[in-house]
C-alpha cells in the first residue's frame, strides 16, 4: 500500500527550498526521511499480528531529494486497514485512493484453509470454525487501521522539525 502524502503548501515550500543552501536542503531531506521511518515504525506497532507477515513487510525508504515513502506492500494491507464487505470503513479523504483495492472476488484463492488455520492458531474450538468462516464470507472483517492513522502524528512532527530547522538557520 505505497502512498504519497502531500502536505498543504509542501510543493511551494520545496520549490523555495531548492534556492536555499545545500546544507539546509540536506537537513530537511533528513527530516523527511525520518518522518517516513516514524510512519513505518508506527504502522508496524499498530499492525495486527497473527504470524507477522503484514508487520514484517512495512518499510520506509528515501526516494529522492527531500522525498521518502512508507509502504505496506502486503497484498492484503488495504483489507486489514479498511475491512471488507459490509464492514469496510474508508476515511473520506482516502476513498479515491482506496478504490484501486476494491475487488470483485477472492482472486481464485480459497479462504477456508486460511481462516481455519487462523482459528486453530487462536485455540478456537473446531465447532466454531464454520460459523466464523460463514460470518467472514458474508459480513467481512472489521477494519484494523494501522497505516494511515500515522499521518497526523508524522505530519505534525515533520512540520515542527522543519520549522525548528528554519528558525535556527535565520
Taking pLDDT < 50 over at least 5 consecutive residues as the criterion, the unreliable ranges are: none
Structural class: mainly alpha
Distance between the ends: 39 Å
Helix and strand run: HHHEEHHHHH
Read across the widest sheet, the strand sequence of neighbours is 1-2
Oligomer: single chain
- Mean pLDDT reading: 89
CA-atom Rg in angstroms: 20 Å
Strand segment count: 2
Largest sheet: 2 strands, antiparallel
By DSSP (H or I, 4+ residues per run), the number of helices equals 8
Q: Write down the overall geometry.
A: elongated
Fraction of residues in helix: 40-55%
What proportion strand? 5-15%
Helix-strand layout with pairing:
Blueprint: H1 10-17, H2 22-46, H3 53-57, E1 59-64, E2 67-71, H4 77-82, H5 95-98, H6 112-121, H7 129-139, H8 151-169
Helix pairs in contact: 2-8, 6-7
Structure characteristics:
170 residues; mainly alpha; two-stranded antiparallel sheet; 8 helices; 6% strand; elongated
Describe the structure.
This protein is 52% helix and 6% strand. With 170 residues, it is mainly alpha-helical.
Short description:
This protein has 170 residues and is mainly alpha-helical. The chain has helices at residues 10-17, 22-46, 53-57, 77-82, 95-98, 112-121, 129-139, 151-169; strands at 59-64, 67-71.
Amino acid at each position: 500500500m505505497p502512498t504519497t502524502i502531500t502536505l498543504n503548501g509542501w510543493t511551494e515550500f520545496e520549490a523555495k527550498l531548492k534556492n536555499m543552501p545545500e546544507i539546509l536542503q540536506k537537513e530537511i531531506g533528513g527530516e523527511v526521511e525520518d518522518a517516513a521511518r516514524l510512519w513505518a515504525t508506527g504502522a508496524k506497532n499498530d499492525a495486527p499480528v497473527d504470524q507477522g507477515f503484514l508487520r514484517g513487510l512495512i518499510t520506509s525508504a528515501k526516494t529522492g531529494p527531500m522525498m521518502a515513502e512508507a509502504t505496506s506492500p502486503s497484498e492484503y494491507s488495504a483489507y486489514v486497514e479498511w475491512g471488507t464487505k459490509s464492514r469496510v470503513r474508508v476515511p473520506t479523504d482516502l476513498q479515491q485512493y482506496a478504490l484501486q483495492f476494491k475487488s470483485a472476488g477472492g482472486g481464485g484463492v480459497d479462504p477456508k484453509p486460511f481462516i481455519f488455520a487462523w482459528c486453530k492458531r487462536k485455540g478456537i474450538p473446531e465447532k466454531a470454525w464454520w460459523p466464523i468462516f460463514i460470518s467472514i464470507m458474508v459480513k467481512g472483517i472489521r477494519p484494523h487501521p494501522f497505516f494511515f492513522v500515522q499521518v497526523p502524528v508524522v505530519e505534525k512532527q515533520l512540520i515542527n522539525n522543519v520549522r525548528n530547522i528554519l528558525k535556527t538557520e535565520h
